[in-house]
Design goal:
By secondary structure, this protein is an all-beta fold. It folds into seven domains: 1-32 and 44-61, no CATH class; 64-177, Immunoglobulins (Immunoglobulin-like, Sandwich), CATH 2.60.40; 181-267, Immunoglobulins (Immunoglobulin-like, Sandwich); 276-369, Immunoglobulin-like; 378-464, Immunoglobulin-like, CATH 2.60.40.1120; 473-620, Chondroitinase Ac, Chain A, domain 3; 628-727, no CATH class. The protein is built from two helices and 62 strands. Strands 53-54-55-56-57-58-59-60-61-62 form a ten-stranded antiparallel beta sheet, with no helix packed on it. Strands 33, 34, 35, 36, 37, 38, 39 and 40 form an eight-stranded mixed beta sheet that branches. The N and C termini lie far apart (72 Å). The relative contact order is 0.07.
Length: 735
């Protein structure tokens, strides 16, 4: 961070070190506290490559030819009067009547409401969408946004018009008091659960709004909640009685709030307790101890209709031992996060392991052996743009579906060599950014990650990676100063909103000013083999007045709300059922779940809470079938070629369309075989030792039926005009 003041001529000089910098400016308010009559440009990005290099970066403040004045009213005994002493912010953004898919409105102003309920911001002829931000727990309901027009009359005087073109003096909002409540209790059957420490969250799905209430010591909670449609979630941070309840519900509750009192209880009598475990050891490539180095071991169970999603992680002890407490039963994936120290020594993560546990079953003696590729285990090649230009310092990444990942940078000629282990299909891609002559940062990405098949090879050379500019738009960021002792909120052009409660920042109580810097970015998102991300994320940082980065955890959770582009994340291969907020952990070189995430697919809203700043993304698991993970991608998107099952299309959510067998729902088992649900015949089981599309004598399936006498082996006869299943039980064609 660096800062400077302009001189009388508007000139400035910043002393900076080599690196990528985002540069912005802020025009001070007038002595009377009014906003300056200028509209600043968004921040610009620039790269300083070496010590002693200098660059010129000019800005132009747009002269605001108009001022928009407004007032916020409340109803007192039938009279509409300005609200007083209300903690609120007013925002104005460019009005777009029919925005394109990647078009974001400019944020024109974000100003605090005065203690007398008035606001003012500079503008220019045009149309604006104006709204009000109220802190969670406000006694008032967030009013709907309004559209206003600013026009100049024949004398050049600015006029303010409502959406219907009626001339007005001030932009006016009328607040409505919240007259409805939501309350309830945590209980086990009929008995209240005391001693829980946590919060209940509410996210509105038919408008703007997010509220929360603490769980009281007797297990009750209560909050004011405007009428409308809401998603109710909770997070249990601590249980004084250590009853091993999970921290989150299996699914958030959807609730329609009506005027008056509303209730919602959380009954734990049928909730599974954390009563099982997965334990074992982590060793190096020679099956020796890690010499005091520790790794993180994680366990994940994807949610189903019957079982809640669950995640837990632990750090190994000095001898590499671990034990993870889990919810009983289900299909668990278990993997490791390496420390930076071990990565520097050339280690890769150990492949993810899968366990299917019964309700009363633990997994013990789980063994992980870290991977350290030999010198002759590599993938090498070149990275170029779509104009055939070699790209130096491009980031090349490689990952597998079983949790392995590696990365490197290209050399001055655009060449790379990345150390990987054999035995897997590696997905390989790259990313790159540069600044053009106008100091605009241009991003390049792999359109699709390439398949490199090392199942029977030690290495592969001459891999050609071609990067293209993306077809999505990255919105502008923001850099704003605020008083950390009061509630603060800011919005980005894409609709993302960040709320920082007053007194939550890790600064001294006498600090009067801090600077928040939010930078949307598409760089470095391909960091984790197990997480798919949206097109771009957000780098969020906080600095004090001296330019020092504010470190440490917040005293109260920060709230980040993101409108999710359903089509875009689905195209990126994210599983919509598992959408959540993620932050990047530099310790683990991985995306980790935010403290809480509340997701509603119907309204496309995601709200997360966090106690620290980092890089944040919308993330999820990959929406591909188990069969696709062990198959090669074809040139046509979402088509795959299995070495034994043939060609098929992956439609997502576990469903595939096979070129001969038609629609099938797929699920792999622990031995590498597969269950296929056929819409006509039900569940079929087979594997590469029983079926091979290239061999006529290997076409066997086992038909499972609830009635044991109906179970039988089948032979798939496809060498005829109308292929069919032959039943060995009946000796005829399966009907």
């Amino acid at each position: 961070w660096a800062s400077a003041y302009t001189n009388a001529k508007g000139q400035y000089t910043l002393s900076v070190s080599p690196g990528r910098w985002e540069v912005g400016y802020e025009i001070p308010v007038a002595e009377d506290g009014t906003e300056p009559p200028y509209l600043p440009e968004p921040p610009k990005r620039v790269r300083i490559r070496q010590s002693g290099e200098s660059k010129t970066l000019n800005f132009k403040a747009r002269d605001a030819s108009a001022t928009v004045d407004g007032v916020v009213l409340v109803d007192e005994n039938g009279s509409k009067v300005p609200v007083t002493d209300l903690d609120a912010w007013v925002y104005a953004k460019e009005y777009l009547e029919n925005p394109s898919e990647d078009q974001f409105p400019d944020i024109i102003a974000e100003v605090p409401l005065s203690q007398f309920g008035t606001f003012s911001f500079p503008g220019f002829p045009g149309s604006y969408t104006v709204g009000i931000w109220l802190p969670p727990g406000s006694e008032y309901e967030i009013p709907e946004e309004k559209t206003f027009h600013v026009e100049l009359d024949s004398n050049g005087t600015a006029q303010l018009l409502e959406a219907n073109r009626t001339e007005i003096e001030k932009a006016t909002f009328l607040l409505s008091s919240v007259a409805s409540t939501l309350s309830g209790e945590f209980k086990d059957g009929t008995s209240p659960l005391s001693g829980l420490v946590g919060e209940v969250y509410a996210m509105r799905t038919d408008g703007d709004g997010w509220r929360y209430a603490s769980i009281e010591s007797n297990g009750s909670y209560s909050m004011t909640l405007p009428k409308g449609s809401w998603v109710i979630d909770y997070y249990i941070e601590y249980d004084e009685q250590a009853r091993n309840y999970p921290s989150y519900p299996q699914q958030p509750s959807k609730l329609s709030i009506v005027d008056g009192a509303n209730s919602l209880d959380f009954d734990f009598s049928a909730v599974d307790k954390i009563s099982s475990s997965i334990s074992g050891t982590v060793r190096d490539e020679n099956n020796a101890s890690l010499n005091g180095s520790t790794v993180y071991v994680w366990a994940f169970r994807e949610g189903t209709d019957a079982l809640a999603e669950y995640w837990n992680e632990v750090e190994t002890d000095d001898d590499g031992n671990f034990s993870i407490s889990i919810l009983p039963g289900g299909r668990y994936e278990v993997g490791v996060f390496l420390s930076e120290e071990l990565r520097q020594l050339g280690y890769l993560d150990s492949p993810v392991q899968e366990y299917r546990l019964k309700a009363d079953q633990n997994a013990s003696s789980v063994s992980f052996q870290l991977v350290k590729p030999a010198a002759d285990n590599f993938i090498s090649g070149t990275v170029k743009d779509d104009g055939n230009n070699s790209l130096a310092d491009a980031l090349v990444y490689a990952w597998t579906y079983d949790g392995l990942e590696a990365e490197t940078l290209t050399d001055a000629n655009g060449d790379f060599s990345i150390s990987v282990s054999p035995g897997s299909i590696w997905k390989v891609g790259a990313e790159y950014s540069e600044f053009n002559a106008s100091d605009v940062e241009i991003f390049y990405f792999s359109e699709r990650d390439l398949d490199v098949d090392l199942r029977e090879a030690d290495s592969l050379e001459n891999v050609a990676i071609v990067l293209k500019q993306p077809d999505f738009t990255i919105p502008e960021g923001t850099s704003v100063t605020f008083d950390p002792s009061v509630d603060f909120a800011t919005r980005l052009p894409d609709g993302t909103e960040l709320t920082i409660p007053g007194g939550s920042a890790n600064v001294s109580e006498d600090t009067e000013s801090v600077r928040l810097v939010i930078t949307p970015t598409a760089k470095g998102l391909a960091k984790d083999a197990s997480v798919k991300t949206a097109d771009y994320g957000y780098s969020i940082e906080l600095f004090d007045a001296s330019g020092k980065k504010v470190e440490g955890n917040f005293k109260k959770d920060v709230i980040i709300s993101i409108p999710v582009d359903i089509t875009a994340v689905a195209d990126n291969g994210l599983d919509l059922d598992n959408i959540e907020g993620k932050y990047y952990s530099s310790t683990k070189n991985a995306w980790e779940s935010a403290k809480t995430s509340t997701w509603d697919e119907t309204s496309s809203k995601l709200t997360m809470t966090t106690d620290h700043f980092s890089e944040y993304v919308v993330g999820s698991t990959a929406n591909v079938s188990d069969l696709s993970k062990d198959s090669l991608s074809l040139s046509v998107e979402k088509w795959y070629q299995s070495s034994w099952f043939g060609s098929f299309y992956d439609a997502g959510d576990g469903w595939i369309f096979h070129q001969k067998l038609g629609w099938l729902y797929t699920q792999g088992d622990l031995a590498g075989n597969f269950w296929f649900y056929h819409p006509t015949h039900g569940w079929l089981w087979t594997g590469s030792s029983l079926y091979d599309q290239a061999e006529d004598d290997k076409a066997f399936f086992y038909l499972y039926h609830q009635t044991e006498s109906e179970r039988t082996w089948l032979y798939y006869q496809d060498a005829v005009a109308d292929p069919y299943f032959h039943s060995y039980k009946t000796g005829g064609q399966l009907q």
